[in-house]
Fold this protein.
Amino acid sequence: MVSFDQRGHGDSDKPESGYDWSKFGDDVLAVIDELSLTDPVGIGHSAGAAALVFAESNRPGTFSKLVLMDPVTPEPDIGAVMASEGNPMSDAARRRRAVWDSTDQMVERLKKGSPLAGWREDFLRAYVTYGTEPLPDGTVRLKCPPEVEAQIYTMGGRHDGWDRMERLRCPTLLLTGTDSPMWFEDRHVKAVDRLPNGHAERITGGHFFPMENPDETVDAVSRFLA
């Protein structure tokens, strides 16, 4: 299994600009080429799933199968809201606290009323542990700077990922959360209709269902891959 930190995240570079989401797809292809991977299965969540959509649509036949978990490939109406200057997710990201006294402090805060409050604790601790870096004074800082995160959220509505889903020819599983704000009502049905060789399943949870309900998620992915 291979995973990597997307640009702006983790230990990857964090340029001041360059967060057009099509570049996330370019990065996926660069990793595949560098490692000489042949017919890999692509599994991604949120922006990571959108990156797979861009990679496969730019180079059809790259993947043998795709698993797209709550991908940020919004219909035009949601995309327009995300792309606006008043994007609430971008505004919230700019206000995000970047430095914490400790990882324990951050975990306890995220358990209380944050969008990550429903995560299983081992996933939450892994996110905090690997998503921060220690500073000389003993505090920890988010590896993804708030301003970079804000740019990524804004650019999340300025791409054609919804239309590109029609270009995915490989077997594709679309997993969406039953309470996802991105995939409410019958939007998953509309999306799977765009996939030439795909089907959709709903997993109990919100946008973060893989971290909230990992057992059901793994079961669905395993059945698809088998």
Summary: Residues 21-83+159-225 form a domain with the Rossmann fold fold (CATH 3.40.50.1820). The beta strands are 41-45, 65-69, 99-100, 132-134, 140-142, 172-177, 198-203.
